[in-house]
């Protein structure tokens, strides 16, 4: 039978002096908030109440996830810190003599919950804040940002080298478990490294001929990738002939090699399209994180960022009430309508004030806000403005809403600096979206606790 919380008090814990075991005010307020059954419900929905071995109680997992995102710790460091701290042990409902879970437990829970489970937890927190009348949904502001992927700066030659090495590494692992395998896959790491170093020497010339020379060397890398792909393809064909006698782990390795081979072919096509001067609409920028994409936000310091686009929606008092994560760079204007629909579903009403930057301006959005009977629509118009439009944007209500909207930049800055939204440590869309959701969860919970403490 699964347990919601760990409530049994061991003898050593009961014998501790109160001054050692009493939690700080902030942790005590967060512990009170996280005791809400509605917030624990998304975790319990992923557990069978009867079948299976008893796992770590959901209340303990949720508190461990909060501490991890609050202090930006790895799973291993988090377990070590909780083990060494009386306050953190009490906050996570572990006694002095209780054994802590293995760090991989948090990894399994993040995968089990996924983006949908973390989004459900955040919505439950928002519902609790609404029930406590901390937020009422009368104001609405939205802004977008980029969470960068944990990758190096992509180049065609670098991607080709990474893809070739990845295919070779996985193919060699597969080769060791095939009984009647063909000739071993050749390691082309030295050939790849020699050409990448040659590109570095060519770029020092800073002449027009250097660009053509770099494209020529990059094409040589592409040809090496094609040859390696053919050799690995023969290995996969030989492995599939034995697929009936291979165990599940071997079949999984075959799938991994096929995935790496497909990424290699994608990188080769991109490289040759760039050489031909063709436009690449959905460019892969990393074989380690294939879902990351280049995003242009018009920043002078970083004209192009590589990662995921995040929409942040806020209500009163700086609480994040909703968010969305997308691959690529979809227009901001397309996000406003769905965000207002989710706001209505969450609060049961449309906001009185909608404030955005000019990136969300469109005729459809302006008309949609008017149809919702929103009192103040503070969406600056793009392009040339008529006299009536200039007069409307100079009204005191519009200016007050825009000043309030500027506070959203501070929220995004705080999320980036303290809660891991600047650069994700995870790879893949599901893992990155889960990490972003956990960061927003930690932000909202801590902000609520600070208001309670003050």
UniProtKB/TrEMBL annotation:
Pfam families reported in the protein's UniProt record: DDE_Tnp_1, DUF772
Biological processes, Gene Ontology terms: DNA transposition
All copies of domain Transposase IS4-like, residue ranges: 304-444
PANTHER family in alphabetical order: BLL1974 PROTEIN, IS1478 TRANSPOSASE
Domain Transposase InsH N-terminal: 27-112
Source organism, top-level taxon: Bacteria
One MF annotation (Gene Ontology) recorded for this entry: transposase activity
Species, as recorded: Sulfobacillus harzensis
Protein name: ISNCY family transposase
């Amino acid at each position: 039978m699964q347990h919601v919380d760990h409530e049994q008090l061991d003898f050593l814990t009961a014998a501790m002096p109160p001054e050692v075991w009493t939690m700080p005010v902030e942790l005590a307020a967060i512990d009170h908030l996280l005791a809400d059954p509605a917030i624990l419900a998304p975790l319990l929905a992923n557990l069978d109440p009867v079948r299976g071995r008893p796992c770590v109680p959901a209340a303990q997992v949720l508190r461990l996830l909060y501490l991890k995102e609050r202090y930006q710790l790895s799973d291993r460091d988090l377990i070590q810190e909780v083990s060494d701290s009386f306050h953190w042990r009490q906050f996570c409902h572990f006694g002095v003599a209780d054994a802590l879970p293995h760090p991989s437990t948090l990894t399994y829970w993040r995968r089990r919950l996924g983006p949908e489970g973390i989004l459900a937890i955040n919505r439950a927190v928002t519902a609790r804040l609404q029930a406590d009348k901390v937020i009422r949904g009368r104001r609405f502001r939205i802004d977008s940002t980029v969470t960068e992927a944990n990758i190096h700066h992509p180049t065609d030659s670098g991607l080709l080298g990474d893809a070739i090495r990845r295919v070779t590494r996985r193919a060699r692992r597969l080769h060791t478990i095939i009984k009647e395998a063909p000739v071993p896959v050749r390691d082309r790491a030295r050939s790849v490294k020699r050409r990448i170093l040659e590109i570095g020497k060519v770029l020092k010339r800073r002449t027009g001929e250097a660009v053509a020379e770099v494209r020529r060397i990059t094409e040589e890398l592409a040809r090496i990738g094609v040859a390696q792909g053919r050799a690995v393809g023969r290995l996969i064909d030989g492995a599939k002939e034995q697929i009936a006698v291979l165990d599940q782990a071997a079949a999984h390795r075959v799938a991994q090699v096929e995935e790496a081979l497909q990424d290699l072919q994608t990188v080769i096509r991109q490289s040759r399209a760039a050489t031909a001067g063709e436009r690449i609409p959905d460019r892969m920028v990393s074989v380690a994180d294939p879902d990351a994409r280049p995003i242009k936000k018009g920043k002078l310091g970083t004209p192009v960022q590589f990662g995921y686009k995040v929409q942040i929606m806020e209500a009163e008092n700086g609480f994040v009430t909703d968010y969305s994560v997308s691959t690529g760079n979809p227009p901001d204007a397309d996000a406003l309508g769905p965000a207002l629909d989710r706001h209505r579903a969450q609060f049961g009403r449309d906001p009185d004030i909608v404030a955005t930057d000019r990136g969300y301006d469109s005729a459809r959005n302006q008309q949609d806000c008017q149809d919702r009977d929103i009192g103040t629509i503070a969406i600056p118009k793009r392009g040339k403005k008529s006299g009536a439009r200039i007069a409307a944007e100079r009204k005191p209500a519009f200016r007050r809403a825009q000043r309030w909207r500027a506070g959203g930049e501070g929220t995004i800055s705080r999320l980036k600096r303290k809660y891991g939204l600047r650069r994700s440590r995870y790879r893949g869309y599901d893992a990155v979206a889960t990490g972003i959701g956990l960061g927003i969860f930690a932000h909202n919970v801590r902000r609520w606790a600070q208001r309670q403490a003050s």
